[in-house]
Amino acid sequence: MTADDEVLRAGHEQVVFCHDERTGLRAIVALYSTALGPGLGGTRFQPYPDEATALTDVLRLSEAMAYKNALAGLDHGGGKAVVIGDPVTDKSEALLRAYGRFVASLGGRYVTACDVGTYVADMDVVAKECRWVTGRSPADGGAGDSSVLTAFGVHEGMLAAAEHVWGEPSLAGRRVAVQGVGKVGRHLVDLLVGSGARVVVADVQHTAVERVLAAHPQVEVVDDPDHLLEADVDVLAPCALGSVLDDRTVPRLQARVVCGGANNQLAEPAVADALVARGITYCPDYVVNAGGVCQVADELHGFVFERARAQAARIRGTTASVLAAAAAEGCSPDAAALRLARRRIAEVGSDRPWLPAR
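User: That's the sequence. What structure does it adopt?
Assistant: Structure tokens below.
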């Protein structure tokens, strides 16, 4: 399948390949839909093995962003970008500024933010060349790190799942496994400990685990993140990279609920049905991890933390609606969430010649 074939099959509005020979920039920006507003989604900086793998990832991520923004009640469509390279060795001010110029050339159709491999300081650099950048530092007029509200939204979704499964919106006494305690996971641990949950964590980065233990010495640690999947827990929260749930891992799960911050947790759509078959309640990642996008969207209007937090707090009700719809319709929560998102895009959105970001 050629790149053109893959884009057409995925149904995206626009995909732009960016190359700057001087800085070594190789990037892809994908816009799945702008029916609800400018495509909003982060920039992922990752050493993909080849351009085809990067394209597949950005197409999938941008589609998920369309559904995430729709279900979060935001007036934004779905967009995403990937930069091909090692963020440790390849990232430079010149490369980020070249990337900013490419984003600016889209004229407001795409609004970018932080993602895996990019940080607040990087968005400050991109913003030197482009106005359609969020996730900037407070000193640069932005809202700063969005992982706090991302974790908050995941916790809200987890409370909705607890009420759905156990009849009470509480995690007190529940054993919760957090796989990945980096940007989002460590903040989620803070919230879980505060909720009275018994927390077990794992991360490939030992420094990340040590930081959690310094704040919460009572937290249990599993050395191998893969082993955490089969731990005897009530809730599993994947907060590292995606595709953790597949035909190999689902049969090993002991958790009754899966609710985490990682994007694209399902390796393929059929995994959602496999979870249902095992009696595991899955909270779609694009529903519960929308707190960060609530924050960066608010930044476009002059950031007010309380307003963004109030928007993120709606994630609990949305999660409850998704789980209730799935139970009533006899389908997976993923299928129910997709129907709700597509309904909002169809009913509220419109086909419009694009206007610049507001």
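The CA atoms of residues 216 and 237 lie 18 Å apart.
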